[in-house]
């Protein structure tokens, strides 16, 4: 027996096909969620830290650079004068970004790296002390980063030391073992007025592979995506 709408299809076959369609899992929603997440991460350049030797990666990967943190308000600096140790000073940078140093007085130090500040001080003290050796050490630095996605305690964390993307995830309670996809972790960073994202495969760390740590900068966002299952 055939139906009126589809004369060439038997009624039993049409009913079976309809039931099969109704039982089919709806996959549109996961795809829609994936599209929304990807759209939030688009519009910025994606960089993949190269898989190379630690020395090579420390040069190419800004997260592995020793000077990754710039000096900012609230940091504590130690300024050392090896030839005149009585001038050594350890100070916290004021809210206006300044320090008060012996002989030369107040200078702006925020926004500079420790190396850049040391070179600047050598020039400023050139006519005042004989030695051209001045050392700048970042004693402590407190800043915030954000961890979101498939972690147990997403949100902002405050740190007072250099911290890697993997350590930040651990500080957020660790990753959700049932949902997290550690092969596609993304670090979103603002650099020179632009948003950049760095893609990290942190799964390798759990597999015992030794990778140079990707150190975070203030206000970085670490996003741990969820695994997608196809039904």
SSE blueprint and pairings:
Layout: H1 11-23, H2 28-41, E1 45-47, H3 54-60, E2 76-80, E3 89-92, E4 98-101, E5 105-108, H4 114-124, E6 135-140, E7 143-149, E8 155-159, H5 165-171, E9 185-191, E10 194-200, H6 203-206, E11 221-224
Parallel strand pairs: 1-10, 7-11
Antiparallel strand pairs: 2-3, 2-6, 4-5, 7-8, 9-10, 9-11
Structure write-up:
- The protein has 231 residues and is an alpha+beta fold.
- It folds into 2 domains: 118 residues, Outer membrane lipoprotein wza domain like (Outer membrane lipoprotein wza fold like, Roll); 65 residues, wza like fold, CATH 3.30.1950.
- The N terminus is likely disordered.
Briefly say what this structure is.
This protein is α+β, with helices and mostly antiparallel strands. The chain has helices at 11-23, 28-41, 54-60, 114-124, 165-171, 203-206; strands at 45-47, 76-80, 89-92, 98-101, 105-108, 135-140, 143-149, 155-159, 185-191, 194-200, 221-224.
Features:
single chain, 231 residues, alpha+beta, Outer membrane lipoprotein wza fold like, wza like fold, 2 domains, six-stranded mixed β-sheet, three-stranded antiparallel β-sheet, 6 helices, elongated
């Amino acid at each position: 027996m055939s139906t009126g709408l589809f004369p060439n299809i038997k009624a039993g076959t049409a009913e079976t096909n309809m039931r099969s369609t109704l039982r089919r899992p709806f996959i549109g929603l996961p795809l829609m969620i994936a599209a929304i997440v990807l759209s939030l991460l688009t519009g910025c350049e994606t960089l993949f830290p190269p898989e190379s030797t630690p020395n090579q990666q420390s040069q190419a990967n800004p997260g592995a650079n020793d000077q990754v943190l710039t000096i900012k308000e609230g940091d504590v600096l130690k300024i050392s004068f090896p030839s005149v140790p009585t001038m050594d000073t350890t100070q916290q940078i004021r809210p206006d970004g300044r320090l008060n140093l012996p002989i030369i007085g107040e200078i702006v130090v925020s926004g500079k790296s420790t190396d850049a500040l040391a070179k600047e001080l050598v020039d400023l003290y050139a006519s005042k002390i004989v030695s051209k050796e001045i050392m700048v050490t970042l004693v402590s630095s407190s800043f915030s980063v954000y961890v979101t996605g498939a972690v147990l305690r997403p949100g902002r964390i405050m740190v007072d030391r250099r911290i890697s993307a993997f350590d930040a995830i651990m500080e957020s309670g660790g990753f959700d073992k049932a949902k997290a996809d550690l092969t596609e972790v993304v670090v979103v960073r603002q650099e020179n007025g632009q948003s950049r994202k760095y893609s990290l495969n942190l799964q390798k760390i759990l597999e015992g592979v030794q990778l140079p740590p990707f150190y975070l900068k203030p206000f970085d966002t670490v996003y741990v995506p969820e695994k997608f299952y196809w039904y």
